[in-house]
Amino acid sequence: MRGRQFAAIFVFCAITACGCVLGPKSLRHSRLNYNRAVQQTSREELLLNLVRMRYHESEEFLGVSSITGQYTYTADLVARSIWPKNSEGTATLGAQSKPTIVYSPEQGSEFNQRKLSPVSLETLDLLASKGWAIDRVLRVTVRNLNDIDNATSAGGPTPGQKPDYEEFLYVTKLFRQLQLDHRSVEVGLEERVTTDSSKIGEPITLAHLSLKGEDMVTAAQQGYEFRLSNDNQSAELWKRPVTTSVTVLRFAGTAEASPEVAEICQTLELQPNLPSYRIRIDTAGQLKTPHSRRLSRHGLESGTPVPLKDEITMSTRSLKEMMFYLSHAVNAPPEHFRCGYVRSTFDDFGNPFNWNDMTAGLFHIHYSEKKPIDADVAVKHRGYWFYLSNCDLDSKSTFNLLQELINLEIRAGGGAQIPLLTI
């Protein structure tokens, strides 16, 4: 009898133990673990691709399409009773997780098209107005600003010649100083007349014109309006002005007289004291256009006044260009330069160029022969560990910005790239 009681108690405990992680409670044992795994491996994949691009290797993204978590529970009981003296029993309880993960290489035409398309003004406005440092956003996403170059050649495989970036870096630091100074600069939207009103045809005398109310309504719906002459004897058909939302750069009124704003206007050749400056996207920007002030300095336009602008022409990078740009911040071992795995870059005087000068305060990837113990994310490639230091907050912010841009520009609305977790 006691053996049977012992067996019953063990079976009850086994069933109760199994039930404790079934149903909704199973989320506690799986959701956060899968969340951490997806996040960490995504960061490692991005870092590995940056390292590959530094070594002139092609990048590869592997999406996690779905995760199915299956749990198997087993309970075994062996009981023996030797009446009336002894009773013995053994029980085993086991649980096993068997996840099924579906991977999908991200190689479709839509994925590659988004990866190679320049980032939009709407994205820049979204990032700049939601707390990101304006200098970080501009350095990563923009390659040209009113003919001031931001290392355009760095948007591809490592060039042999040092890129131009110093003047652009100087301007972005001025923008950042204004942003820190009571938010004295912003990128936002503004309603502007983009098409002026224009007269269509010649005046028509009212004696020869029969207008009804419905005609006036139809004209208004099509963007037109009838205007009477001063003597009310004739009418003219006019195309109404078109107003749209445009992206602009604005300085706070308290900062208009600041030396930072004066220096920005002088460098970008902007008319001073304007309430805002429209930002236009230039889809070209690969050709190096000499700055007007540089032409004057070199005597090419001696005596010609510099024409000041009321808008900013911007050429933005694609996501692949951004990744190439940041990949130059990957430090490589000296022997890899000697072996030709990584290309060396030189300045105009033939001296080796250190890419850390361009990416200082923005992004930096270290290398180590041994696995680093204080790394935010680390990957092994060609016998070395490449890692993002856990103490380098600037690099971590830039890395997070790049991930945010990938999510906005590539994976936004792409349900196929969103992991589906089934338990």
Element string (H = helix, E = strand): HHEEEEHHHEEHEEHEEEHEHEHHHEEEHE
Query: Which word captures the global form?
Result: globular
Number of helices: 13
Please give the radius of gyration in angstroms: 33 Å
The helical percent reads: 25-40%
Give start-end ranges of low-pLDDT stretches. 413-418
The major pleated sheet works out as: 6 strands, mixed
Describe this structure as you would to a colleague:
This protein has about 425 residues and is an alpha+beta fold. Among the domains are: about 1-105, no CATH class; about 195-240, no CATH class. Helices cover about 35% and strands about 25% of the residues. It has a six-stranded mixed beta sheet with strand order 6-5-13-12-11-7. Strand 15 (about 375-380) and strand 16 form a beta hairpin. Helix 5 packs antiparallel against helix 6 (about 165-180).
Lay out the secondary structure.
Blueprint: H1 2-19, H2 31-54, E1 62-68, E2 71-82, E3 86-97, E4 100-105, H3 109-116, H4 121-128, H5 134-141, E5 142-145, E6 148-149, H6 166-180, E7 185-195, E8 198-205, H7 213-221, E9 224-228, E10 234-239, E11 242-251, H8 259-267, E12 277-281, H9 292-297, E13 311-316, H10 319-327, H11 334-338, H12 356-359, E14 366-368, E15 375-381, E16 384-389, H13 393-409, E17 420-422
Parallel strand pairs: 1-17, 12-13
Antiparallel strand pairs: 1-4, 2-3, 5-6, 5-13, 7-11, 8-10, 9-10, 11-12, 14-16, 15-16
Helix pairs in contact: 2-10, 5-6, 6-8
